[in-house]
Design brief:
single chain; alpha/beta; two-stranded antiparallel ribbon; 12% strand
Length: 264
C-alpha cells in the first residue's frame, strides 16, 4: 500500500489523538491490528522476510503433492469451493468433510493456491509437518521469534489462513503437537482463520486430537461436505476424455465406484 502513505500518516495522527484522549497506549501488535482494521495492508517485519519466503515455499511443496487432475483435466469441485468461501464470511473455522477419495484435499489445494496470491498461508499435512511442536516448525522455516510474534506479523497484510489436511492421518503425537501449537496461536490472533479436511467420521467418537481450547477460541465452525462426482462434472469429464464416458454412465455396475475421484 505504498501509494497510500499520505493516508497512513493522517490515520496515525488520528489513532494517536484518540489513544491519548483515552489515556491508553499501543504496542506494535495493537497498532498493526488497528491499521489493518482501517484497510491498510502492511508488508510485515523485514527481519521475518526470509521466514515468510520459506513458509510460502513449504506451502507450495505440500500443495504440489495433492493431485488435482483426472485424465489431464483440472476438476476444482466448484460447489464445495463456493460453500467454503461463503462459510469463511461468518466463521473462523471451516471443516471440509467427506468419504475417502472424494477430493477433499483437492478442494483444499485450490483454496490454498488462490489465497497464496492474496494472503499468507500455512499448510500442514501428515507427512511434511515437522515433529516436535512450534520450536521444530520455527527451525524448519528459519524463525527465531515466538509463534505469537510471527503469526501476528503474517496477518498484518490483511489475513492469515492455517490449512491442515487429512486430520485422520496425523497419527504421530509429535506432528499433532506441531499442528496444535500453530492452531492455538492462530485461534488467539484476530484475522487468522483455519481450514481443515477430514473423513466424515473423524472425531465423532470423541477421539479428535485437535486442541479443545483452540477450537473454543475459534468459535463455532461450519462443515462443508464433499461427495462423489456430480452429473455436471461427469459430463465435463466425459467430454474431455470420451474413453471414460462408458465407465461413468449411470447404467454399468462400476458407475458408483467410478464417481469416486481417487478410484477413478
Amino acid at each position: 500500500d505504498t501509494p497510500r502513505a499520505g493516508a497512513l500518516w493522517s490515520n496515525l495522527i488520528e489513532i494517536c489523538i484518540a489513544t491519548s484522549k483515552a489515556g491508553g497506549s499501543l504496542n506494535l501488535r495493537t497498532l498493526s491490528d488497528e491499521l489493518r482494521n482501517r484497510g491498510f495492508r502492511l508488508a510485515g517485519d523485514r527481519n521475518f522476510s526470509l521466514a515468510r519466503a520459506r513458509l510460502k515455499e513449504m506451502a507450495g511443496m505440500a500443495l504440489a503433492n495433492i493431485g488435482n487432475t483426472i485424465a489431464g483435466l483440472h476438476l476444482p469441485r466448484l460447489d464445495a469451493i463456493a460453500a467454503v468461501d461463503t462459510a469463511l464470511e461468518r466463521h473462523r473455522l471451516v471443516e471440509i468433510r467427506g468419504g475417502p477419495g472424494v477430493g477433499k484435499s483437492g478442494v483444499l489445494r485450490h483454496l490454498a493456491e488462490r489465497y497464496l496470491r492474496l494472503s499468507h498461508v500455512i499448510v500442514l499435512d501428515p507427512v511434511g509437518t515437522p515433529d516436535g511442536g512450534w520450536s521444530a516448525y520455527a527451525q524448519s522455516i528459519g524463525m527465531s521469534a515466538t509463534a505469537t510474534a510471527f503469526l501476528s506479523d503474517l496477518v498484518a497484510g490483511g489475513r492469515g489462513i492455517l490449512f491442515i489436511d487429512s486430520l485422520e492421518m496425523f497419527t504421530e503425537p509429535g506432528r499433532q503437537r506441531t499442528a496444535n501449537d500453530l492452531l492455538r496461536e492462530a485461534s488467539r490472533i484476530e484475522g487468522f482463520t483455519v481450514i481443515t479436511t477430514a473423513r466424515s467420521g473423524f472425531g465423532k467418537d470423541g477421539e479428535s486430537w485437535l486442541a479443545d481450547d483452540a477450537l473454543a477460541a475459534l468459535g463455532a465452525g461450519q462443515t462443508v461436505s464433499v461427495g462423489e462426482l456430480q452429473d455436471a462434472e461427469v459430463e465435463m469429464l466425459s467430454d474431455h476424455a470420451p474413453a471414460l464416458r462408458a465407465l461413468l454412465a449411470p447404467g454399468p455396475p462400476a458407475a458408483p465406484v467410478a464417481r469416486n475421484i481417487n478410484r477413478l
